[in-house]
Structure formats: C-alpha cells, structure tokens
Specification:
The chain is mainly alpha-helical. It contains 15 helices and 5 strands.
Length: about 350
C-alpha cells in the first residue's frame, strides 16, 4: 500500500536529503523487526526471545493458550489488522466456552501486543480497550472447628486404608498441619528445607524463601524465590507445629536436598501429586469444597478476626491487605456482637435510659 512521506529542510537540497534519510529509516527494519506487517505467530516468537524474565511455567501456560486458541484464529493476522473490535468479538465468543480461557487469552494477547507497542508497530494496545471480563465471585469460605475435625478424620482413614504398593506415610497430615500453622502456599510448604526452620530458637520460626515448580524437560525443582518479593517472610510457629517438626526431624531419613517433605527417593515432591492425593482423601467425605487453598483462607480468617487484616496479609505473604480481605477472609454469618458498645448511643435519650434501668432491675 502506497503511503505519502514528507520532509522539510532550510533549502530544497536539505529537504531532499531529509526525505531520503526518512525513506531509508522506514525501509530499514529495527533490530527486533517488529512492524505493522508482523504476524501474530511471528510476534509470539519474538515475545519469547525478548521477555526472557518470564518463568518457564508461565511460558508453558502461555504457549498452551497460543497454540490451542490464538494461533488457529489469529496466527496469520498482521498487527495492522488486529483491531479492538476484532479482539473483543473473539474474547466474547471465548467466554461462552470458558471464562478461564477467556481471561488467559486476554492476558497473553495483552502482553504480546504490549511488546508491539513498545516497538512502535502499534500506536496503542487494542486489548486494553476490549470489554472487561466479569467473573462470578464466590465468597471466601474457611474451615470451622467441626470441618477441621472432619479433615483430620479423613486423613486418618486414608492413611490407615490398605491399598496396593507402599504404605501411605503421614506426610499429608503433616503438610496440612504446617499449612494451618503458617498460612503458606502448598508449593512454599513443599520447598521448605531444614535450614529454613529454627526449632531451637527462643521463639521457634520458619522462613519461607522458595517454592516448587514442575516444567516439561526440566522436571520438579525448588525455585529460590516464592511467588513475589512480599512472599519472602519469617513466621513464628505455634506449639502443634513445633511438636510435629521435631518429630519429623528425628524420625525422617536424611535426604540430599535437605527437604522437610521429600519423596521416598529423596527428591522434591510435586504440587500436583499432593493436590491429587488430597482429592483422593476428601472423596466421599463431604469435603469436596476443601482445597489446599482453603487452609490458607482459614488462617487468614482467624488472624483477621483475632488481630486484623494487615497482620493476616503479612502472615500470608500478600503485598496488600486488600487482596487478603477480598479473596481470603470469609465473612461471619452474623455481625460481631457490639450491642454493649451501641448502648452508649442511648445516653442522649433519657426515656431509653430509664427503660434500660428498669430492664436491669427486673
């Protein structure tokens, strides 16, 4: 497509030189060669090259979305053809099949097209103007004492159950106890090493400074940093966790990776395997709604009720208490009993005060 190019100068010769330089600049691709003619499929490859800081697990998730959803629809599309209306219609159609897929697709496309904007291949990111994704948000639900009793009963029954293969260890009960003792994510618990735990300190504690990742071609490994900078934290341990950890330290065989919860082969446990084990344990127990994250929500709710949301956020490793309030703290069935406090409002009403005195005498 022909496009007019103009240039100015103090003389005719200067204007011609400026015009020739501008034409050369337009014909010479940038080092990254991302232009309005770049296709979505090519942009993805360049995004992988330029965004090397993204974790392998995130890249794998992005790639699944690209190959299954985006490339079949938009792979041959050039950036100049990627309009907001086109993307919006596509994302709306995705919502009918899966809100989760719609959300992931929007994230991936937004990141890729953001790279195109940074290289002047697009003036604006068309994803940013698409319709907001609305999700039905359920209220956070935490475990009651009765629920916790049912959890421990299910754990005991599963551990004692006879099944083919090696006898089940007590790892699951200890993992859940430590989640309840710390509010840590399951990957953070599985990444704990004995060097991260100070059981003999004046106030026993543990430091969360890693998580477990599993990637194709790389296997399961311990990542030296957890989810975010705020996730690195040291938490004091309650007595039941101290007792459990001292027992494990004495009874568990030494493993080469110093893991508190290693496999029988002395390797890191996979998050997926532990989650699958928990699904087996809770089967036919009425605990289908309980996930490993529920233990984390239970910790957040209890700390928020007894202290405040800010303390709960620090315990969970959140960067903001707003996240903790919205997604982790379950709301009580009834409001807190503040009747005695509200009674002070009646002091301005002599009649109400007289009635109160009569009630107390009766």
């Amino acid at each position: 497509m022909a496009r007019e190019v103009t240039a100015t100068g103090t003389t005719v010769a200067a204007a011609e030189r400026a015009l020739r330089e501008k034409l050369v600049d337009r014909a010479t691709p940038t080092q990254q060669a991302i232009t309005a003619a770049t296709t979505i499929a090519t942009l993805w490859l360049k995004y992988l090259r330029d965004e090397g800081r993204i974790e392998g697990t995130t890249i794998n998730e992005y790639e699944r979305v690209l190959t299954k959803v985006v490339i079949p629809e938009f792979g041959g599309l050039r950036l100049r053809e990627v309009t907001t209306s086109r993307l919006d219609l596509f994302l709306v159609r995705l919502r009918a099949t899966s809100i989760s897929r719609q959300r992931k697709t929007k994230v991936v496309l937004g990141a890729m097209l953001g790279l195109a904007v940074r290289h002047d291949a697009l003036a604006v990111n068309p994803v940013q103007q698409t319709s907001r994704i609305h999700r039905e948000r359920s209220e956070p639900r935490s475990l009651s004492l009765e629920d916790l009793s049912a959890v421990r009963k299910a754990l005991g029954a599963w551990t004692a159950e006879r099944r083919p293969g090696p006898k089940a260890s007590g790892d699951m009960a200890d993992i859940i106890d430590l989640m309840l003792a710390t509010g840590a994510r399951i990957g953070e618990i599985l990444a704990l090493r004995w060097e991260d735990i100070a059981l003999d300190a004046l106030r026993p504690n543990l430091t969360i400074n890693g998580t477990i990742k599993t990637e194709p071609g790389k296997g399961t490994y311990r990542k030296a940093r957890p989810k975010s900078d705020s996730s690195v934290r040291t938490v004091a341990l309650p007595d039941f966790a101290i007792i459990m950890l001292k027992r494990r330290r004495t009874a568990s065989p030494v493993n080469p990776i110093d893991a508190v919860f290693s496999t029988r082969n002395g390797t890191w446990q996979q998050v997926n395997n532990v989650e699958r084990r928990w699904r087996q344990i809770r089967q036919d127990t009425g605990l289908d709604w309980v996930t490993p994250h529920t233990f984390r929500k239970t910790v957040a709710t209890l700390i928020s009720e007894r202290v405040n949301a800010e303390t709960a956020a620090h315990q969970l490793g959140h960067s903001s208490p707003a996240i903790t309030r919205e997604f982790y703290i379950s709301k009580p069935a009834i409001a807190a009993d503040v009747a005695r406090i509200l009674e002070e409002l009646a002091r301005a009403n002599p009649a109400a005060t007289a009635n109160t005195s009569r009630i107390s005498r009766e």
